[in-house]
Amino acid sequence: MALKINPELTAATLAGRVRRVFDLSASKIADLEKRWDPRRGSPVFTIQGEYTSRGWTEWTQGFQYGSALLQYDATGDAQFLEIGRGGTRRVMARHVSHMGVHDHGFNNISTYGNLWRLMREGRTPPNEQENDFLELALKVSGAVQAARWSDAEKGDGYIYSFNGPHSLFVDTVRSLRSLAVAHQLGHALMGERDRRISLLERLLTHARTTARYNLFYGEGRDSYDVPGRTSHESIFNCNDGSFRCPSSQQGYSPFSTWTRGLAWAILGFSEQLEFLCSIKDGLPVAEQEVVSAHLEPFLRAARVTADFYVKNSCHDGIPAWDTGAPGLVMLGDYLDRRSDPCNPHEPVDSSAAAIAAQGFLRLGAHMDRIGMPEVSVMYRQAGLTVAETLFSDPYLSADPSHQGLIVHSVYHRPNGWDHVHAGQAVPNGESSMWGDYHARELALMILRESEGKSWPRFFGPAAADCRFLPG
C-alpha cells in the first residue's frame, strides 16, 4: 500500500494538533469576515494567501459561514456563532432557492444545517422561532435540489449537475445530505398534479446511479476499469436515459481519477451508510426493505474507493490532484515516499485528503457497527494518519498573513485557475474554502472523540441500536 498507515495514532494523541488547528483557524476566520465584501460573491480559493472569487457556480459561501460555526462548536467562542449565524441570515437565502446548482448539501447543510444541529445538541439555547426558520430552509433546499432530476435507463436517475440534464457529477453524492435532512423533517417534493415525490427515494436512486456509472469495480467495463477508480462525470442521452460515456471537468481525463472526486465518493457513501442505518428501523416495512437493498452496494462503493485511495496516495496520505496527470511520470515512484507539494511537475491536492480522511473515519465506524472490527481499524487508522499529515507542516498554515488554513489545495487544474507562484512550475501554497472547511470538520470529529464525545452528524437522532461513540 502507498499510504503507510500508522497503527499507533489515536484521537488523544492528535488532540494537541487539532487544538492548534482551531487556534490558528480563529484569526483566519475573523480576518476573512473583516475583509471580505459579500458583493464580490463567494470566497473560493487564495491567490498569494488572500481569498478571491472565481465564477463557476456559487458553491462555497456555505463553507465560509459554516467554518465559523465549526469554530464555535470546537471552542465555544460566541463571536464565531454570531459570524456564522449572521452570515447565514444575510446572504444564504438565495442558496436555499438556487435552481441552478447541485450543491445544496454543501452550502445549506454547512450553514442552516450546522445551526440546526447545534441547537439539537444543546450547544445553542432552544429557540422555537429560529428552529422553525432553519427547518423551513432545510426543507426547501432539499426539495429544490431533488427537482434537478433526470431519469436514466434501468430505473436509475440522478440530480444533474450545473452542466445540464445530461451530466451526473460524482461530487453530488456528498451533497445528498440536503435531501436526507429534508426527508427526515417530513418533507417531500411536490410535482405536477400534486404528485408527492419521495426525497428518500431520490436520494437512494441518485446514489445508486452514481455507484453504477461513476465508479469502477474491475469487472471489465472498459479498458481502464481499475477497482475503485472514479470518473468525475457521467454523460447520459437525455432522449432515452442511456449511459453514453465517462467524462471529466476538473480531472485530467475521463480515464484517470481526479482525486477530489474520489474523496467525495468515499465520504459521501460512508456518510449515507451512517444516515440510512440510523433511520432504517423507524421506516415502514416496505421502505425498510428498499433501504436495506441499497446498503450493500453503497458499502461496496465506499470500500472500493477507499481502497483505491490508500493505494494511490503518497506515504503520508496526500494524493496527486489526478492519478493520470501526465507529469507524474517525471516523479518516478512518487507513491513510495512522502508527498512533495513543491515538486516541479504536478500539484498535490490537500483538500482531497481532508475530505477523504473524514470518509475513512466514518467508514471505519460503519465497519465496526456491522461486526468487522479488523477492517474498521484499518480505515480508522488511515483517516488518523491523513489527519496527522494535514495538521502538520507543510500543510497547516501558521502564517498570520495567509487567510487559508490548509495549503497546497488545487481547484481547477485543466482550466488553469490555480495560482502559480513566481519561480514555480505548478500551483502550490494556496488554500480553498472547501479544503479549509473539511479540515475543520475533520478536526472537530477528532477533538470531540478525544474528549469522550460523539462525532457531529448532519442528521437527527439515531435509533438506539445504530448509535456509535468512537473510541
CATH fold node name: Glycosyltransferase
Q: What is the CATH class? A: Mainly Alpha
Radius of gyration: 21 Å
List the helices and strands in order.
HEEHHHHHHEEEHHEEHEEHHHHH
Structure explained in plain terms:
With 471 residues, this protein is mainly alpha-helical. It has a single domain (11-466), classed as Glycosyltransferase, CATH 1.50.10. The protein has 15 helices and nine strands. It has helices spanning 11-35, 61-75, 78-91, 93-96, 104-107, 109-120, 128-147, 172-175, 177-184, 199-213, 259-280, 285-311, 350-369, 373-390, 433-450, and strands at 45-47, 50-52, 149-151, 157-159, 167-169, 189-190, 196-197, 233-236, 243-247. A three-stranded antiparallel sheet has the order 5-8-9, with no helix packed on it. A two-stranded antiparallel ribbon has the order 1-2. Strand 3 and strand 4 form a beta hairpin. The longest helix is centred in the middle third of the chain and has 27 residues, at 285-311. It is globular, with a radius of gyration of 21 Å.
List the helices and strands and how they pair.
Elements: H1 11-35, E1 45-47, E2 50-52, H2 61-75, H3 78-91, H4 93-96, H5 104-107, H6 109-120, H7 128-147, E3 149-151, E4 157-159, E5 167-169, H8 172-175, H9 177-184, E6 189-190, E7 196-197, H10 199-213, E8 233-236, E9 243-247, H11 259-280, H12 285-311, H13 350-369, H14 373-390, H15 433-450
Antiparallel strand pairs: 1-2, 3-4, 5-8, 6-7, 8-9
Descriptive labels:
15 helices; three-stranded antiparallel sheet; 471 residues; 9 strands; disordered C terminus; Glycosyltransferase; two-stranded antiparallel sheet
